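Dear colleagues,

As part of the handover before I leave the project, I'm documenting each prediction I ran so the next person doesn't have to rerun anything. This entry is a single chain, and its sequence is reproduced below.
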Amino acid sequence: MNDIQYIAGYALIVIGMGFDVLGCVGLIRLPDAYNRLHATTKCITLGTCAILFGTFILKGFCVTGAKAIICAVFILAISNVVGHALARSAHKSGVKLCEKSAIDKYKEDGN
């Protein structure tokens, strides 16, 4: 393995960890469940996939690298759908938006 692979792999892992930390900060700091879901699904998708792609670059085409790619594809395919399903079910069960929210499209559409 050459130096460029090390640098690229570890850079992706560090960037991914940064996005995951931002997702955790968003989970703590944002005012309601919907904003928290938005922050966590976006940051975790990007952060965790960056960590997994960095792992793939470091490990190469082996069992660990293949598992990292499979997990990244799975996260990319399902993370945002799950976040949307959670937000929709929270809205249907009556979880309120924060007072500063400007618009509620679900309520306007009658869903």
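The chain has a mean pLDDT of 86. The first helix runs from residue 3 to 29.

All the best with the project,
I.
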